[in-house]
Design goal:
12 strands; 7-stranded mixed beta sheet; Rossmann fold; single chain; 2 domains; alpha/beta; elongated; about 300 residues; Aminopeptidase
């Protein structure tokens, strides 16, 4: 049993394990890693999360980091760095747990793809990435022409938050995510089905909205925006949105949030309080959005 802790970029415990990893790689390959000093050239804004794993006694036994990729690896790509477990703690699946935490953090940040690099002298790493669904890709960055280098990638699911009958809250949720540097888009679904002459039925309007939303979702994803907040007057069944936000990574990861007053009418994941207009509405919307994002695990 291990516990995963987010730490600061300059955390001395994590940095010590990075140093241990580099010494091990030097012994395996006979020369320094091409990015041994990557941290010295990385801006704070590029960090998604740095993690340290501890055992039941609180001893640090592993580390991992994910950052926005600085290389030509596609819009929305994040790069895994410094996945390392101390030799005395290997063979227990700890690297897999760390990778699960890295993937979850990347999804929350709006990444659409993870990339990483390992090498021919790390057979345990090669086996791990094969097991957890990573595919081999051409080399990138400083490893492009290194015959010992092996690069991997994994597509991440598209994530959507459907906020029903609370547009002000939906917009505040988008703004909060944007302020956290997440890669996120906002859609006002109510405007998608407007037409003149009006469509013949509510079902026709709903179908048109879904078709336009599906197009927008794929357009956002191609531009590296892995999160979408949707303001909707009504909610279709979750399965419809799962299909709308489907990508080559699989079904969309969809959460539906509705005001408490409508909770009996819609199959929802999160109930929120409605926010009326007038004085203080913006502050109320921000509070409701913060509660919504926390409850939804965003």
């Amino acid at each position: 049993m291990i516990t995963i802790h987010p730490v600061t970029f300059d955390d001395p415990v994590a940095r010590a394990m990075w140093h241990d990893q580099q010494r091990e790689l030097l012994a395996r390959y006979g020369d320094d890693d091409a990015e041994a000093d990557f941290a010295a050239h990385m801006a704070d804004a590029d960090l998604i999360v740095s993690l340290v794993a501890t055992d039941a006694d609180g001893n640090a036994i592993g580390t991992a980091l994910v950052r926005w990729s600085p290389y030509n690896t596609g819009p929305g790509a994040a790069e895994v760095k410094r996945l390392y477990v101390r030799p005395s703690h290997r063979g227990h699946g700890h690297s897999r747990v760390l990778m699960g935490a890295i993937e979850a953090a990347a999804v929350r940040a709006g990444a659409t793809r993870l990339v990483l690099e390992t090498g021919t002298e790390q057979p345990e790493a090669l086996a791990l990435y094969d097991r957890i669904g990573y595919a081999r890709i051409p080399g990138f960055g400083p490893y492009l022409n290194d015959p010992r280098s092996i690069s991997f990638a994994k597509a991440l699911p598209h994530r959507a938050l459907i906020v029903v009958q609370a547009r002000r809250v939906a917009l505040a949720a988008f703004e909060a995510l944007a302020a956290s540097r997440a890669r996120v888009a906002f859609v006002d679904a109510d405007a998608l089905g407007l037409s003149s002459p009006s469509l013949s039925s509510r079902d026709e309007v709903a179908l048109a909205e879904r078709e336009v939303l599906a197009f927008a979702a794929q357009s956002f994803r191609r531009r590296g925006l892995g999160l979408v907040v949707v303001a909707a007057e009504r909610a279709d069944a979750r399965d419809e949105y799962v299909r709308v936000f489907r990508s080559h990574a699989g079904p969309g990861d969809v959460t539906i949030a509705v005001p408490a007053s409508a909770i009996d009418e819609i199959d929802a994941d999160v109930a929120i309080d409605g926010v009326e207009g007038g004085d203080g509405a913006e502050d109320a919307a921000e509070r409701a959005a913060a509660e919504l994002l926390a409850a939804a695990g965003w």
